[in-house]
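ENTRY TYPE: paired fold submission
RECORD: A
CONTENT: sequence, then structure tokens
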Amino acid sequence: MDDHAASPFALSFDSVAAQYAAARPGYPPHLFTTVEELAELPLHGARTVDVGAGTGIATRLLLDRGARVVAVEPGPAMGAQLRAALPDTPLLRAVGDALPLADDTADLITYAQSWHWTDPARSLSEALRVLRPGGALALWWNVPDPDTAWTVDQEERLKSRLPGYHTHGITADAAGIILGLFPDLRPVYRRLYWTRRVPVDVHLAHLGSRSYFAVLGPEKSAPVLAAERAHLLDLFPDGTVEEAYAVDLTVVRNLRPAPR
């Protein structure tokens, strides 16, 4: 961890680790079906490395699909949440820029909501080193659905009130970044859609678990979240918010030939 440490901004999640575990959304089943399709491998039995695993939200879903998962997470508090929830899952405290894993040992490497915290040149090189020939790297992000009016309005409000909003944010152009670094690779992009219905307090806790709220701290975050509560109760007077998400997914296979 000394030469390739996680950024302090990335480690800000440790201050909201329990909140993150309780309130963050998961991912829809068709995401994992699409990963299997694009990676051209079944998740069942796949040797999988879930990097930036956080509290284990994606890790659990990969395990539910039968993957053999090793979780990689730099944050001690986030990792503690994962270990408590998934005590039998191997957990490495490390970052994607320097994976403590041998060459050609993984079928699949996943980054759920976390690849933007890496140095892409380093993390891609590491993924290609650790993946077996024919293995695949899958990167995905839940983002507020840009075709749903209330989520667009909320994003604009947050942008106007929060300094550095999305400065360290979502990498929608992962395929372009990959091609810029490794032109011989063939990344494939898909956007998937899903929704979930949650109490307004869970939605606000989800917002509060985002990195730009975490670095502000509770005192500065409170008025922003209070204002959001008022907006949301106008839209959802029964107190149940229908969150609308798009999942931006990029999958790239390791097409280098197997060693002879």
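RECORD: B
CONTENT: sequence, then structure tokens
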Amino acid sequence: MSRRRAISSSRRRGARRHSAAERWLLLIGIVTIVILFAGLFDPWRQKPVRPAKVEPLSMAAARASNAAVPIVARRRVRAEPYRFRGGPAAREQAVECLATAALYEAGDDRRGQRAVMQVVLNRVRVAGFPKTVCGVVYQGFTRTTGCQFSFTCDGSLARRTVHLGWGAARRHARQALAGRVFADIGRATHYHTDWMVPYWRDSLVKVARVDTHLFYVRGRSGR
């Protein structure tokens, strides 16, 4: 009899423990549901704010915006003459890189070509850019975005055609590598056409305009 009573008592204790565990699980389930419900329907909870869609500027709006940015002439400091120090083969390679950049960026406009070349040579001499002419021209060309000169990564090179401007571009490139300075843009390292507004525009200082291209130097106008 004592053995049966012990077994019976053990079964009752097990049943009580099982019942207590079920109550705890039920309580935890109820608390979890309450928390989820409060999180979903909390009237004080801030709803996520969707970023406003930024519409691209029209050509006219971009030109108006750019025209409102003044040219700071006092920041247009004449660049030092550039002296190429490589051998004949390296020089011809630099000539080709300069001429290509000038023609693709400015077409056959001679002042525009010289302005683009001056930007390239200015970049060679400042921190943050490659130290060779071709390095500057083709910086980032392996990326679909992020190249410094768009013609190097937008497929333009694959569509290269014979153009009357090549002779003049190569001539201007040789002159620039021999020390001829295009003073109209000073030491500008950035430029863009007047029908677009790049994200970096307001962090630089506009110092010149050549036809439809606007030129900038680093640093804010108050510096």
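NOTES ON RECORD B: The mean pLDDT is 80. The first strand starts at residue 190 and ends at 193.
STATUS: closed
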